[in-house]
Design brief:
Layout: E1 2-7, E2 18-21, E3 35-40, E4 43-53, E5 66-67, H1 76-89, H2 93-100, E6 108-114, H3 125-128, E7 136-138, H4 139-145, H5 148-157, E8 161-167, E9 174-180, H6 184-193, H7 199-210, E10 215-216, H8 217-224, H9 228-236, E11 240-246, H10 267-282, E12 287-292, H11 298-311, E13 315-319, H12 326-337, E14 341-344, H13 350-361, E15 367-370, E16 382-388, H14 405-416, E17 420-424, H15 429-437, E18 441-445, E19 456-461, H16 462-467, H17 476-488, E20 491-495, E21 504-507, E22 524-526, E23 531-533, E24 540-542, E25 555-558, H18 562-572, E26 578-581, H19 583-586, H20 591-600, E27 606-609, E28 622-627, H21 641-653, E29 664-669, H22 675-681, H23 685-698, E30 706-714, H24 717-734, E31 740-752, E32 755-764, H25 770-780, H26 782-787, E33 791-796
Parallel strand pairs: 12-17, 12-18, 13-15, 13-16, 14-15, 16-17, 19-29, 20-27, 20-28, 26-27, 28-29
Antiparallel strand pairs: 1-2, 1-4, 3-4, 3-5, 6-7, 6-8, 9-10, 9-11, 21-25, 22-23, 23-24, 30-32, 30-33, 31-32
Helix pairs in contact: 1-2, 6-7, 10-11, 21-22, 22-23
This protein binds a DNA duplex through residues 2, 4-5, 7-11, 13-14, 17-21, 38-43, 45, 56, 58, 60-62, 111, 149, 783, 786-787.
Length: 802
Amino acid sequence: MIAEVIVDVPAKQTDRPFDYVIPQSLETVIQIGMRVVVPFGPRKIQGFVIGIKPHSTLNKLKEIIEPLDLTPVLSESLISLGNWLSEETLSYRISAYQAMLPAALKAKYQKKLLVPKENKPLLPQTLQSLFANQESIMWEEAKETGYLSLLQQEVTKGHIQIIYEVKDKIKKKKRLAIRSALSIEDLKTYQSTLTQRAQKQHDVINYFIEHNDWIFLTDLTATLQISNAVVKELVKKEVLEESEREIYRDPYANRYFKRTEPLQLTNEQQEAIDPIHDRIAKSMHEVFLLYGVTGSGKTEVYLQSIQKVLERGQEAICLVPEIALTPQMVHRFKGRFGNQVAVMHSGLSAGEKYDEWRKVQRGEVKVVVGARSAVFAPFENLGLIIIDEEHETSYKQEENPKYHSKDVAIKRGKQGSFPIILGSATPSLESFARAKKGVYTLLSLPKRMNNQDLPHVDIVDMREELRSGNRSMFSSSLLEKLQVRIERKQQTVLFLNKRGYSSFVMCRDCGYVVNCPNCDISLTYHRHQQQMKCHYCGFEDHVPTVCPECQSDHIRYFGTGTQKVEEELHKVLPEARVIRMDVDTTSKKGSHERLLNEFQKGHADILLGTQMIAKGLDFPNITLVGVLSADTMLHLPDFRSSEKTFQLLTQVSGRAGRHQLPGEVVIQTYSPEHYSIQLAAEQNYDQFYEREMMIRKGLKYSPFYFITLITVSHEQLMKALDVTEKITTFLTSRLTKSAVCLGPVASPIPRINNRYRYQCLIKYKREPELNQSLKQILDQYQQEVTSTSLKISVDVNPFILM
DNA sequence: AGCACGCCGACT
DNA sequence: GTCGGCGTGCTC
């Protein structure tokens, strides 16, 4: 039999199946969807079997070397989903497949030089020492020795072999388990032969007389207070037997989740859930947009919809934006569905992710709660996919394949004939527009569950503060309110919007800004390491003490980091206990959750943080939310910046007063008159929607037009510009009259890592030929992409236009 | 992506 | 005359 294999070589020319003979011995083993090792040129690489057929049109085929899996890692439905994905996003099939699987399943390759024992004496003296203690050395090591040409000569002579290895990254976690190898009768007989001195052995035998089952060695030694030696001795005597048992790394082991029961739904919730339950019961595909204000009880709707799906023997996926809200979300899901839940998010180690994925694959769980890529969870009988906070940008992957989870979910929903729920308090304009058009079904939860009023919002004009002599980052109004909370022992969340506004170093005399030498972007000041770093290419430099331009020593860092805010807070409110949450304090595993726990327990008065605290916080004692600088992302070169500002402010404001105590919100801004800030303060989504839609219509942006962004980069500015120009011309000729093709324009970041970047932006209503044209472009420049440093990136429906 | 094959400049 | 530079094209 012949296997069709997609090989792990992400390139245009290899983006097609290659045929391999399945050796006789593997005929019953190899199945569609398995990973295999295949010879490819002189190398050995990994590939996915995507088809098995009796004959091939080619005659001299190579054989599959070995399978990497016992059972397929991709089902046929996932393979076809992968094919669709690569088609939609114009990415390689291998990239699409890999994106659907945990990273642990991606192979690692090793190249080695091997000298068979008998050849050792044949090597020249200089090389002998290299192989004195070992048969083989790594290629990388060999390169460092500087004897590469000498080594290559020996390779041609046949004294040294080059071998390629495919290393499976997976390490299944294993522990040693022990059980009795004898019957209870025989155990007793054996026990009677033991001498008086062998008390420990006696105990062990006793244990196994009582428990006729496997036990982990570590548990056994702990319970009986004995050493490994005692057990090993009995294993050697064949009284006991041992076996490696695979165990899951359970990131939520030893954690107790209080079991919860379905809550009584409000009338509104009931009205929202009825149509969902109806489609689940009828196995009908439909996309619901669940538009519910913060605190309106969307999660309970999710939980009870999942409940319904489980009752029908189906499975469900619930996507959540990122680690940010998972601790609380996980609690609610594990509380309701116990160990039927697997969790997949970026906070887990590769091994943990792999184990969670395997629980799904083996059918040991029925529900997955996870971030973007969890939409590919390998369920075979899905009944529902929920996307919570559907407007979140983290659902869009910025690397190839540049997919959006929402599109994947809807595709799976159509294929499997089941409903999709998109939930948000601030739906993306795209989704809301579709709901209004009737493409999605709108379900509204306009009231908070406890009928608690939305918090009162105060907009503070920071220019005014400045004029009245307050140069600190806290307005007098915010400071006053902070003091009141501390007196009343209530809690405050302070939110620092840092997106697109990192701390940079500028000379106060001449205005010189420290830029990256490789990228056209300012370097970011990293306080704890006392260094300047580039977020795009990784360049690092010392912090300058004098201005390189004018030699002035008035060179300072600008921008407000959380650390700086913390310091300031300490000065003005020395008695306040502050917990700071940002990339620095949460980088360690589990620290995110730990900090939140501490705050929840009341160990601090103020929680200070960035984006990551904007979502999911739901603590009863929070009565004040302060946004230190609301407009930092308002001025980004992005047509969605107003929408994002509105969503973020609404989201943050929703953190206050979710329970009995009423909440208050202070928004500090330099542009208080801006509609997205004004309307966020009123929590007026509908008016924001109307207003923003007008603007989008005028500018021909989404949701009125689809957008595709092509970014061309090259070491030479002229080359990048030239290619972009040609692409733009070509596309313009291929597009219909209703489409707009803008370009070539320099990218908002015109240079990254010494590569110049130009782009072409296409806005269109309906272009059935566009995909074909884009493919043609990629084909056209294929040679230049492989031979020169030209790169062409296509992003269909981009989220950020960088 | 790698890697081999193949054609032109500076070296023993 | 050879070693080694990297342009071109292939990998079942």
